[in-house]
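One record is kept unedited as follows:
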Amino acid sequence: MIKYDVFCDESRHLEHDIFQYMLIGGIWCEQEYRREINTVILEMKNKAEFAGEIKWNKVTPKKIDLFKNIISFFFQTRALSFRCIVIDKKTLKHDIFNKKGGHDEFYYKMYYYMLNKKICPPNSYRIFLDYKGKNDAEKIINLQNIIGHTYYDFSNEIVPLMQSVHSFQHPILQLTDLFIGAVGYEWNDLITSKTKLEICAHIKDLSSNQSLKITTPYRENKFEIFRIFLR
């Protein structure tokens, strides 16, 4: 049995923003290596004299080498893997499928689909979602229970913990933000920053993908992108 910590975030998820595609993703980290991985990332940041968070909106020409080095570290580290799902917001039908909860209910349904494929009992998973507000606690507990019930685990041994956390305390969560930001950048056909395009190219080189605007093969485990087609 392997114990994992999963750090989750979302990008362009607001229902009525200007972006067509929203993303929900997470990085899976084997628990026994979490402290070591965080230490390496912090050392890389200190060496580059970077005090901010490693997030997509922090990508600048001045610090591009740091971001590239951290991305390379992810691909070199066996204990880390990434998965995200892509949803076309033009296909949302909340009036039919989410009558009571609307977009908020849909948001947590998509979290379930993002997480569920990479949950493999008897492994266990502590899941951390980027903090969005005080009203999330009940919905997060409900999501934890639904995942448990999927595997007839009514004592929450498979997912013993699910909670929201602040990204500034968790370097791996910041890396999740960076990856879903990059994937969402390509899916939404954005070309506003040469530096961000260079980061996307770096991820493609290391993942051996010609594009981030794809669904990766089912066997892919290191850097997985999956577009969901809503019915």
